[in-house]
Amino acid sequence: MPDIVAIEKAGQFVSERGRKDGAAYCDFRAVAVTAESVRLADGKPDLINRKVSFGYGIRALVNGAWGFAAVSDLGMDSVKATLKEAIEIARASGKLAPAPVQWPVLAPVKGEYKTPVQRDPFGVPLKEKAGFLQQMDEILRRTPGINSTSAFLDFRREEKWFYSSEGSVIRQTIVHSGGGFTAAAKKSRREVGERSFPTSGGQHGAGGYEIITGLGMEAAAPVVAEEAVALLTAPSLPERRTNLILSGDLVSLQIHESIGHPLELDRVFGSERNFSGTSFATTDNLRSLKYASESVTVKADPTAPGGLGTFGYDDEGIPARASALIENGVLVDYLSSRETAARLDRQSTGAMRAESWSDLPLVRMTNINLVPGQGTLDQLIADTPDGVLIATPANWSIDDRRENFQLGGEIAWEIKNGQRGQIFKNAVYSGTTVEFWNSCDRICGPEEWRIWGTPSCGKGQPGQNMRTGQGAAPARFTNVKVGQPA
Amino acid sequence: MTPSKDQILTALEGAVKRSAADGTELVYMGVRDATTRFAENGIHQNMVSADGRAIVRLVKDGRVAVSTTNDLSAEGLDRAITDAMEIASFLAPDEGFPGFANSETAPAVATFFRGTNQCLPERRAGAVADIVSMARAAGVQSSGLFRLTTNRVAVVNSQGTRQFHEETVAELSVSASDDASLGQGWSTGVSHDIAQLDVKSLGRIAVDKAVRSRHPEVIPAGEYTVILEPAAVGQLLLFLGFLAFSGKSFAEGRGVLSGKIGSSVTGANITIEDDPFLSVFPGLPFDYEGVPKRKIVLIENGVARGVAHDRRSAKQAGTESTGHALPADNPRGPYPKNITLLPGNASMDDMIASTPKGLLITHFWYINYLNPMKAQVSGSTRDGTFLIENGKITRPVHNLRATPAILDTFAHAELIGRDRVLYPQYSTALYVPAMKITAMPFVEDKE
Question: How far apart are CA B132 and CA B135, in angstroms?
């Protein structure tokens, strides 16, 4: 645990001294991270690792341009030198700034936020965690044909201290827990059937060890193992246009790639052009683009409990609030920061987030939640005379304007006369963002809805891996191209 | 304050000596990162950060555990060792653990350049200003990255291994664009020595391409002859590497080359190596277990020859480490970080002139696996795609989604470029030529 008195002293110093040294605004963000990863392959430890990291970053706005400097040394000499460096960098930026940063006045924010945790995951003995994963291996191997398994648990506690020259003082403790398993039936290198649970890469959320015990991994294991074995001999999904039902976790991925990313306002303004790309959803489309069908409403909601994008304040000190991005199919807002929102004369949606203390905050997804509709997945299938159900993300790619995509699931079922039929592997589908979302004609209800966690969303240079959430339920899309040519 | 080489090695050695484990390894990874990003013809992000972390790996009664800290004080390192000892106490003995390396000191490589290390933000801004001027003159927007890093790696273990390496890396990436006409261009360069980066040349390439790719036309999906610029070849090679060149997946029978050593896997004109000693961009001379790196022939004239090993995968495969271990907190196993594809004898003009109909591709975006069993990927073209007709570049075309199976694609390499370009991606240096491929599939993708 870092020296809290020293952090508070450094934060106060920077927030008061920055303006005297020429910054129109500055902030200090210290972050201490403790992480634990327990990974088993075939029931044996693959990697069990604990990480701790502490440091702080100082952001300074001088002459309408930004500078940022970050180190881990909390001595006051280091704090002073880091503030000076941030200001000097900002001055250099100012010589070639695109346009002076608009920085509306913000009233000081003082607050504290803690992720509600029922059972501290760092208090759970490693023996219990490893034992649970070994048990998963044993359960999966009871299914004939399963000859390879992996299972993991990940935990992360992030403590943050934020001070700004506007007088904001914020303290947050955010706890994330996640886990999952994979079962494979392997005959040869090319003949493999593989399934994951709860989704590929596991399910992650804000909370304690209760998240792990609530995943239902033991109960799901036999069915998941059976599906892996069935995939070993399943044919590839043939190419055709049809009704497509996506599982909730695939809807989550679809939201992430084709709604979340294109609506990051820094990206829309071109900040990520050199790496992640731009967006087709330019600002002239605001309040006019029919992004999706009327049944689609999407909200950015960092206040929603349990998501990887759940917090009390973003990394600019903006209190978390829910804001609609797409309302009844129409584009109504973007994920934004103070600077980018000001360019549209809007309020920040509180989406500035940095992976670590050493990274600049960027506009990132929080929890991007598709408002649920009605009914269960079984009812949706029953109401579908002809189509395909694809489940669990396996592959994904989308162009640099977030328009054309090709995604795939681990498994597909043919749907005929309202019932699941044959299983397929290599279950890809493709489309264009606006056409695809406008073809959404049914979304399942709250009983099927959950916030899926994406623990490694890449953006920025140097690259940052953000932890985002997407609230989703299974949904149906019409006339979608599925499969590949034989 | 950045610790000196002696301070780092002394700190690691002290911690190894104090450890109560049967064997202990400490790896230090320090980075100072000074990055200027620009967009809309101006600097919008500008930063410096410095961090150093130590990765402890230890063995106690045959049990192996890992912990990581960026607290490099004696107390911080001891806490990390205590953490790892606690983890180890819960584990079963690790039968695959090969023990720690007892390695000779790797030969020093000249990869540290003071000019790169000490470049001030004003100079970075000056370089960006040159690019912005070029873009404005052409009526396009520029954006990009000018990144200077100083990386330091040290490995110390209880077997007596003691390695230290310091390098600087200067990387410039430039995009140019004209949104109204959908013109896009891009270029990138990397060197240990900032003085070797030709800022104006890289700016000119991106700007010229953005101007030439204005008003692209839509062309139908299907199979095309393609000329891949080096970056596009590098991107395919990188993803092939993930699937094919790791000793871990190879030893576990999951790798594309598993069971195929000595067999033909792609075209006879394809030779792929991992060469950490390339004069154009030498890499880390030892790996994260402290084992000196070796050059590996991965594919020779189309025939699978080898993969990258760390000590664990080498033991499993019954061979020796090639010096390609990644840090112990990385579960992916060994990986080559200096991949080269040997050049042919064609010029870019030769490739274009010999093509009755085809596409010239600058690079790809968001390549991801489509069918890993077949080394098949999916990704869209980006930043300048052009139609070639009757041996000439005739017009720009809209981006397309390619779905190549990489080894099959390389088997269709009719011509290989004689000039190679250094292309950095995801901490891997790829040194690659352009290629003319006679058949690459593209799927329907509406713009």
Answer: 5
